[in-house]
Amino acid sequence: MPRIPHRFLRKCLTTLVALGAIGAFSGQALAKEITVFAAASLTNAIKEAAHAYEQASGDKVRLSLASSSTLAQQIAAGAPADIYISANEKWMDWLADQKLINTNSRHDLLVNSLVLIAPNDSDIAASNITASTNLLGMISPDDRIAVGDPDHVPAGMYAKQALTSLGQWDGVNPRLARADNVRAALALVERGEAPLGIVYRTDADISDAVKIIGTFPADSHPAITYPVAMVSGPNEKDALKLLLWLLGDDAGKIFADYGFDPITPMPAGLTKK
User: Fold this and answer.
1) Could you give the 3-state DSSP secondary structure of residue 63?
2) What gap in Å lies between CA 197 and CA 122, rounded to an integer?
């Protein structure tokens, strides 16, 4: 994996000094509570990562998991969050525009891919997804394709971009079952309420009830990145400790186990003491 950019490293060092966080992993520090707002698609991975961090640091991590848009709007409304992990850049940008995040702490954490899924017992054959793929031909006239709501859910937004790029959006749009988040879309397929769904690969990988039918071409949508940042507020020193841990190798191994591709290792010289 590529090394973290020197510019970001300098920003982290500057922030560490300003917040007095150097040596913050000392065993003498009192346990702190850090609240993380994370995209629903991170549910399984971030729960395990939070537990591992609690064991390593002695701090308590509270999680709030929902659509990136819902979480961003809650932060804007004053919800007490210390770290925000979005499933796309848009909602992180939205918070940055309102000066609600520490922009020096912002960094891309993970990447993902977009797939088409069906229930395990489906007879729909797996195939490459191209502009000639007839998605509506795979389902009956009364069926719908489950997806996070493209109006605000990142997975749905990526799906719309991919379908538009492949020339299929106008036909598929009226046949979508729009869910509040990507995990809700996954659940519709798991229960057999939708014969197809568009979700992240990591969502498909954690489910025993669905199978992947195809993967959307990487060039059919923007790169699926998960930016992370500290939310501006009084708890930034403790939040920064967790942020740096999330960028490190220990967290990276956990995310990789759930199918995510970590982008960067822990900045050199900022490992735990």
Assistant:
1) strand
2) 12
DSSP conformation letters of 213-248: EEE--GGGS--EEEEEEEBSSTTHHHHHHHHHHHTS
The model's pLDDT over 90-134, given as tens digits with 9 standing for 90+, comes to 999 999 999 999 999 999 999 999 999 999 999 999 989 999 999
Q: How many CB atoms lie within 10 A of CB 76?
A: 13
Count of Cβ atoms closer than 10 Å to residue 5 Cβ: 12
CB 54 within 8 A of CB 195: no
Question: pTM for the whole thing?
Answer: 0.81
Pair of tokens at residue 255:
């995310």
Least confident of 174-178, 187-191, 262-266: 262-266
Lookup result for tokens 């822990």: 266
Taking Cα atoms as reference points, which of 89, 25, 77 lies closest to residue 243?
A: 25
* Spatial distance between the Cα atoms of 214 and 53, rounded to a whole number of angstroms: 35
